[in-house]
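Methods, example record. To illustrate the input and output format used throughout this study, we show the complete record for Aldo/keto reductase. The sequence lines were provided to the predictor; the line carrying structure tokens was produced by it.
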Amino acid sequence: MPFSRLAAATTPTAHIGFGLAAVGRPGYITLGREADLPPSRSVEALRERTLELLDAAYALGVRYIDVARSYGRSEEFLADWLHARPDIHDVVIGSKWGYTYTAAWNAGAEGPHEVKDHSVAAYVRQREESAQLLGERLDLYQIHSVTPESPALTDKELHSKLAELAAEGVTIGLSVSGPEQAAAIRAALAVTVDGEPLFRTVQATYNALETSAGPALAEAHDAGLTVLVKEAMANGRLADPHAPAALREIAGATGLGCDAVALALVLRQPWAGVALSGAATSVQLVSNLHAAAVDLDEEQLERLAGLAEAPAAYWERRGQLPWH
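The corresponding predicted structure is encoded as:
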């Protein structure tokens, strides 16, 4: 599977990936994002910012890039970057299907900016859209934001089509979301096609505030899945100036940023394969990558453990974050 390339990488940042959710579209729910991006949120302005960040990430050793059909033009921007750099072959590309971007490049659009659909028809349509942009460069295709009630966990026709894609060499995975992430992960572990596990990766939210998926992610890792962690900084709640006092104090003691400490907490989990940076500026990206140098002691880990919230409370707060 493609993630073996990441396991073999020797750069300190090989297990930190870069996700384009925050720069592939003009609106997102990260705190402080209104000040992170250029005043113009035009397609060309965000394309330029994305290409700049991809260049910086690659130069600093990042080898996993995460996009999705619903991240505005993220697949398009990534395809532009890959096309301009044909000699780069050591980057692992993951995308996701299951949400359709509906905000029409309007950061102030009313209502949801993306609509979920885990049907076979949505998969067929979005798989073709991803293929047109990324072609054979796509290594991993994930179902986006699976919850325990998602039909994607029980739809045999969908499973058959995903198995066909796996037979073509594309790794099949899923991302999970919501207060019942653990239940969704465990249900996914039971999905098989012709007696073989369908899913080879799982992407979940895990951070100092939301740790509930940890035991299930350990089970997924033990079952042979590669674990990817998203929202390690809780959509900006664990970055300056919003970080809790305990995190700010620990960051001060390390001499690094709150973001680096938050990512380091994820990286030290024995089941964590890749932790995603969602940086919107090069300065943020460099600060995120300092996570590889953070060494947390037992007292600091205990203080960070005290920040965990009840899953329902965490996800309710996340649902209230505004689209900037």
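Annotations derived from this record:
The domain at 4-319 is CATH 3.20.20.100 (TIM Barrel).
The chain has one domain: 4-319.
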